[in-house]
Amino acid sequence: MTTAHQEHTAHPHTHGRDCGHAPVPHGDHTDYAHDGHLHREHAGHWDECEPTGHASHQGHDHQHGENCGHARVQHGDHVDYLHDGHRHAAHEGHWDDH
């Protein structure tokens, strides 16, 4: 799975620890959940940070839900759960890594 690089233009808000948006660890950087999508700082601007492809999370016995104890982040038309440094999303009876 790769991550698309698409600059998010006209984004005057600067994300950071106290910006009010959920920080999402993602590999070697931090994304911020904002308006149903994820942003990351890159070379002096903000990029959309969305996965391309499908990566099923194997061996994930925990069932996420409203009271599971993991942070919920609205992501487009679904909810991701922040868990162990990555995001999980329900998909066709299993969990995907985002």
What does the model show?
This protein is mostly beta strands. It has strands at about 1-5, 5, 25, 30-35, 35-40, 45-50, 50, 70-75, 80-85, 85-90, 95. It starts with a strand and ends with a strand. The model has no long low-confidence stretch (mean pLDDT about 75).
List the helices and strands and how they pair.
Layout: E1 2-3, E2 6-7, E3 23-26, E4 29-34, E5 37-42, E6 45-48, E7 51-52, E8 72-75, E9 78-83, E10 86-91, E11 94-97
Antiparallel strand pairs: 1-7, 2-6, 3-4, 4-5, 5-6, 8-9, 9-10, 10-11
Short description:
This protein has 98 residues and is mostly beta strands.
Q: Please report which band the strand proportion falls in: under 5%, 5-15%, 15-25%, 25-35%, 35-45% or over 45%.
A: over 45%
- Point out poorly predicted stretches: none
Radius of gyration: 14 Å
Mean pLDDT over all positions = 75
The rough form would be described as globular
Largest sheet: 5 strands, antiparallel
Strand order of the largest sheet: 2-6-5-4-3
The helix/strand series, from N terminus to C terminus, equals EEEEEEEEEEE
Number of strand elements: 11
Number of helices: 0
- The helix/strand class is mainly beta
Give the fraction of residues assigned to helices. under 10%
How far do the termini sit from each other?
9 Å
